[in-house]
Structures are given as C-alpha cells and as structure tokens.
Amino acid sequence: MEYRKFDGTYVLRLDPDEEICGQLLALAEKEGIALAQISGLGAVKAFTVGVFDTKTKEYHANAFEGPYEIVSLTGTLTTQDGKPYLHAHFAAGDEKGHVVGGHLNQAVVSATAEIILNRISGTMERKFSEEIGLNLFDFQ
Fold first, then answer.
1. Locate the PPC domain: which residues (predicted)?
2. Taking a C-beta distance cutoff of 8 angstroms, is the pair 86, 63 a contact?
3. DSSP H helical segments within 1-140, as ranges?
4. Considering the domain 2-122 in this protein, what is its CATH number?
C-alpha cells in the first residue's frame, strides 16, 4: 500500500494481493487515526461479506472468488478498547454485472484499490450492545 496525506485526507493505493481491511487497520494504527470515514473502488479476486441476522444476532458470511469490480466500499474507522476498529460495507460486481455485497470481512486486491480516508477530529469508541448484538457507537 502506498498513500499520501493531504491535511486530514489520506489517498491510498492498494496493490495486488493486499487485503483491504488489514491495510486500513494498519494505517489507522501507524497514523494514530481514531475516527474516519472511508470510501473506495477497485478490483478484487476474493472477498467475504456477511449479513447480520437480528433474530439470532449472528453474521452469515458468504465468500466469493474470481474477477470482481468494487462497486462500493464505504465505512467508518473508530476504536474499540482503544484499538482501531473498522466497520465497512462492500459491494462488487462480476463480469455479467451481478452485484453482491454486505458487511466486509476481507477482500484481496487483484489489480488495484483506490481508497479515500477522511480523518475526523476526535474519537469514537465502540461498545458491545447485548440487546442488539453489535459493537455500536458509544456516546457516553
């Protein structure tokens, strides 16, 4: 991954075989980013996305392999227990134009990924909600 910082905005390029979530978390750790919004596009060769079942409070993961174009990558970087926490959603289309997506667990770049990370001044910690079953923004 290569990146350049412009004030509070980071412009990133990920290269083949780099994993998107891991690279974003590594950048947050390296740069001390506690709160940010991310968006991106590119091409991947493998990814796993999930859908949260509100009744069972479990994620159901779906893995995909092959040539896919990232249609949408959007999310937030916050912290949980003082460590970087990524919450991202992801949609990708195949060569026939079929799009799949969900909560991003992992994605491996095939050609490139271009990601914009907008740092927000301040911090936002997450806390697990027993009622909902998710790590939510903690405004306490």
1. 4-140
2. no
3. 20-31
4. 3.30.1330.80
